Amino acid sequence: MGPELVDRFGRVVRKLRISVTDRCNFRCQYCMPSENVRWLPRSEILTFEEIARLARVAVGLGVQRVRLTGGEPLARPEMEVLVEQLAAIEGLRDLSMTTNGYFLPEKAEALRRAGLGSLNISLDSLRRDRFAELTRRDTFERVLEGIRAALAAGFPVKINTVLMRGINEDEVTDFIEWGRQMGVRVRFIEFMPLDGDRRWSRERVVTADEILAEAAKLGPVESVEADPHQPARAYRVAGVEFGIIASVSRPFCHQCDRIRLTADGKIRNCLFALEETDLRGPLRSGADDEALAAVMRGAVWSKWEGHLINRQDFRQPERAMYAIGG
Ligand code: SF4
């Protein structure tokens, strides 16, 4: 195995998504169970120092971009401290975060000063009632305030919008128009089988074809050149760019260049992986960086060709989205 993180299909890992906590203050239907959420014990959660060390090892193996996720990453206190540690890693080209936006009115400026590069903010409806239905929280205005605070702090902002049939698929054109007004790019995301209540079904997925048909109500839709390794495919309509992440109907696994680190120190070499590789154990029992690197290489080498969602034998992973970090 060479110096980099390469899998059996020749894909090279350049991106690491780090879940810093499984905790969240929202209960989004496509992610969290409606009740009886079992949080990871604090003792099992990686410390900032442990996260920074594993990120340094990964960057040493060719990782160039790190995205911080959760649960809700800002539900963990003092995240600006971790951001500062990660931003200082030599060779790390991009440090970003995915958040539900709730804590941004207080946190945006400090995160920007600490070295965070960009933000993806989740917003699944432009209607307060639907927002409350989808997230099981009445915090619509607060999230809009968070988006404004992020823009005021100078962050490039993208919006993640998960579409669910029968709830918000009629808001595609509204979101595109709203994105134009706010100066943010909206990415529509197909509902994935990672929900805590395990009620995902193909019928509830609003597919890329349907999203494009909706967008075409605004005019001719054209495809826009974009980084093939990015999960979002880019389009433009009426002068506005938007994205679609179509994991279910248009899988992009052949271009996959990312792995995930869970809050309790497991490597997931695929979002839908059924197995994980433990890093926290070796880390806490004194393994040196070379030994940790070898564990990472092994985890990546064993990565499958792609998710099996469109196959009869697909099995939803044990971990739900909130404990993986998307
Ligand atoms: S489903 Fe797995 S292999 Fe496919 S793009 Fe996502 S993480 Fe990569």
Structural class, by secondary structure, is alpha/beta
CATH C-level label: Alpha Beta
Strand content: 15-25%
| Main beta-sheet annotation | 12 strands, mixed
Please tell me the overall pLDDT.
96
Oligomer: single chain
Count of helical stretches: 9
Strand arrangement in the largest pleated sheet: 7-8-9-6-5-4-3-2-1-10-11-12
CATH architecture name: Alpha-Beta Barrel
Q: Could you characterize what this model shows?
A:
The chain has a single domain (15-324), classed as TIM Barrel. 28% of the residues lie in helices and 18% in strands. The mean pLDDT is 96. It has helices at residues 48-60, 79-87, 104-114, 128-135, 140-152, 172-182, 208-215, 280-284, 289-301, and strands spanning 15-19, 65-69, 94-99, 118-122, 157-163, 185-190, 221-224, 233-237, 240-245, 258-261, 266-268, 277-278. Helix 1 packs parallel to helix 2 (79-87) and helix 1 (48-60) crosses helix 9. The protein is of the alpha/beta class and 326 residues long.
